[in-house]
Each structure stands twice: as structure tokens, then as C-alpha cells.
Amino acid sequence: MKKLDRRDFLKLSGSTLIGMTLGGVALRANAQEKLALDDPTAIALKYTHKSEVEGAYCKNCMYIQGEDGAEWRGCGIFPGKVVAADGWCSAWMKKA
User: What top-level branch of life does the organism fall under (predicted)?
Assistant: First the structure.
């Protein structure tokens, strides 16, 4: 099994980010299912439906998609799923 070195990791991460960005329109259109707390990606990113980090919510994250004010919205980190607007995960980054 090939060991993943730093360069390969950065290439993979960059490609993933570009894919999520370019696929944003499709993600918004297809996001239907609420993200389950036992989803493997949700577990890995410590996602929770109710943020315990002051001032950090999915609704003010750069990855959130869809209409402002909606209780559940699409997210670029979790393709095909919707997240709670008041949720949080470790990938959270403040929206500019």
C-alpha cells in the first residue's frame, strides 16, 4: 500500500476543494437528506446539530449554501446532505 506523503495529501485536498466549489450549484439542487450525527464524515469532523462554539455556526460558515434564514441548508463539506443552520463542525470557517 502506497504511503500518502505531504505533496500527495495537498494535491488531493486542493482537488477536493475545487470539486466542492465547482459542484456548489449541483449540491444545492440535490441536498435533501439531513446529515446524521453517525455519518462517518460527520463523526470525523465532529459535526453537531447545535454549536457549542460561541459565534461559530453553520449559518455563518463559508461552506453553507442555500437561502439565508432556512433552518436546514446545503453544505459544501457534506454533499447531498443538509446541515442545521445552528450546527457546527471542525471545518468551520467564518464567511467573509
Answer: Bacteria
